[in-house]
From TrEMBL:
Entry annotated with the keyword Nucleus: yes
A cellular-component GO term for this protein: nucleus
Domain Zn(2)-C6 fungal-type positions: 10-39
An MF annotation (GO) of this entry: DNA binding
Keywords recorded for this protein, A-Z: Nucleus, Transcription, Transcription regulation, Zinc
Name assigned to this protein: ARAD1D30492p
Length: 452
């Protein structure tokens, strides 16, 4: 060892490998394995005087993404008061939990039970409906929703090797994803959605072999869960411009069973069929993927016509809120197709061109949207929460991009439609489910249009 003094602490390589170090330079284990032998500069016996006990653990705990979740508490009364909002607002589009299961989950959130994570997730997705019904700005804000999401994630815990997967775990991750969309955390929402889809696949939910072992009510419930994730995935794929859908449409729709009201069943079935229009070819066209050689103007027109026909044939018994949601959702998909056509220079600015292939098509839908919002109680639209206003926002931005392109002489003929755009934009600026940065963009667009 070249006469060097032996060290009394292990070198970094031995310390990390947890093997005995003889203190040489190089030490014997490092010399045998031809590893770099480096000793820490921290000297042996260095005093820890002045260093607060538990400092490292304290700093780690407070820098954790979940810091603060454990300290956050919500009153029992608040959590239970959200159940009616969940049943009226969330359940019709996600009919996978019975009222008893919902109450049990919320009770577990209050008392620290096994389904507490689901209870907090239910509360988080219910708050946006409470916001919409108590008026803009008067209900709990997005920070409250995010706090509930953090509590749900903390209660759920990490997916460890012995993690217990269940239908409720799938629903929990799905609701967390939904709530994260509401607060604008789209990346995290996408991750939790994929966690939910992963568990769905591992549990073989939706597969014939699994479904055949179930009674009619549970079979219908599991089919509804699969289709619920199918719809949510397609919404996020279009909203975030993702490149791939994971869930394929099943050959079977859920049947009407005794544990779900007929009007909820009909409405949910219609939502499924609406989002079935968003197939992989649709997604490829939107994101400009390589597999779009067979997308042409005729395909765009056919898909748009199918969507408009579908939205005009709503099933009977739908609430005003769900009528508005489905009409606006279909119109949103058509505008997405119009944007595809515009990006490929397929649009025409001539007055002879009408329909989706006209440059001014978004202007034509402004009156329709204004009538929809005014004819249907605005509370009914607000009751659909974040998703419907996000679709309205994207529609409005598309319209704002087109108006400045219209020649001044023709713009004079479209003044009533421009007024409708201004009305819709101002309506969105009052909505608590439109994100702050989106309102800034909308205000900028609105000022530009008014100045024309």
């Amino acid at each position: 060892m070249n006469g060097e003094k032996r060290r009394y602490s292990a070198c970094e390589a031995c310390r990390r490998r947890k093997v005995k170090c003889n203190g040489g330079q190089p030490c014997k284990p490092c010399d045998n394995l031809q590893l770099p032998c480096v000793y820490s500069t921290w000297s042996v016996g260095r005093s820890r005087r002045g260093i607060r006990r538990g400092k490292v653990i304290h700093e780690y705990a407070n820098s954790s993404p979940m810091a603060g979740a454990a300290q956050t508490r919500f009153s029992e009364d608040l959590l239970y008061s959200l159940i009616p909002y969940f049943r009226s607002g969330r359940y019709p589009v996600c009919p996978v939990l019975t009222e008893e299961e919902t109450r049990t989950a919320v009770a577990d959130a209050v008392n620290g039970g096994k389904d507490g994570a689901l209870g907090y997730a239910v509360a988080a997705v219910s708050l946006e409906y409470m916001n919409s019904q108590t008026g803009p700005g008067s209900g709990p804000d997005k920070e409250t929703i995010e706090s509930l999401v953090r509590l749900s994630i903390a209660s759920k815990g990490p997916i460890v090797p012995d993690f217990e997967m269940s239908l409720k775990a799938v629903v929990t991750s799905s609701f967390i994803s939904d709530a994260l969309v509401t607060v604008g955390k789209l990346g995290a929402s996408w991750m939790h959605l994929n966690e939910s889809i992963g568990m769905l696949n591992l549990l073989r939910i939706g597969e014939a072999e699994t479904l055949d072992t179930l009674d009619p009510c549970e079979r219908a419930r599991q089919l509804r869960l699969y289709w619920m994730l199918f719809v949510h995935e397609r919404f996020l794929v279009l909203h975030m411009r993702r490149t791939r859908v994971l869930l394929r449409p099943l050959r079977e729709y859920p049947q009407q069973v005794e544990d779900i009201p007929p009007e909820v069943h009909r409405g949910f079935l219609h939502i499924i069929k609406l989002f079935e229009h968003v197939d992989q070819k649709f997604v490829n066209a939107v994101v400009g993927a390589d597999e779009v050689d067979d997308v042409d103007p005729e395909w765009i027109e056919a898909k748009a016509n199918a969507l408009e026909t579908f939205s005009s044939d709503l099933p009977p018994g739908l609430s005003e809120a769900h009528q508005a949601d489905q009409i606006i959702s279909a119109q949103w998909m058509v505008i997405v197709l119009w944007q595809v056509a515009m990006s490929r220079f397929w649009l025409s600015s001539t007055t002879a061109t009408s329909g989706i292939m006209a440059l001014t098509y978004p202007i034509a839908v402004t009156r329709k949207l204004q009538r929809l919002i005014t004819d249907i109680d605005t509370e009914a639209i607000q009751a659909q929460g974040y998703g419907i206003n996000q679709k309205l926002y994207e529609l409005t931005i598309a319209i704002a991009e087109v108006i400045p392109l219209i020649p001044p002489d023709r713009l004079k003929l479209e003044v009533d439609k421009v007024d409708s755009f201004v009305w819709i934009a101002r309506y969105l600026l009052t909505q608590s489910t439109v994100l702050d940065n989106q309102k800034l963009i909308l205000e900028e667009k609105l000022e530009r249009i008014i100045a024309l």
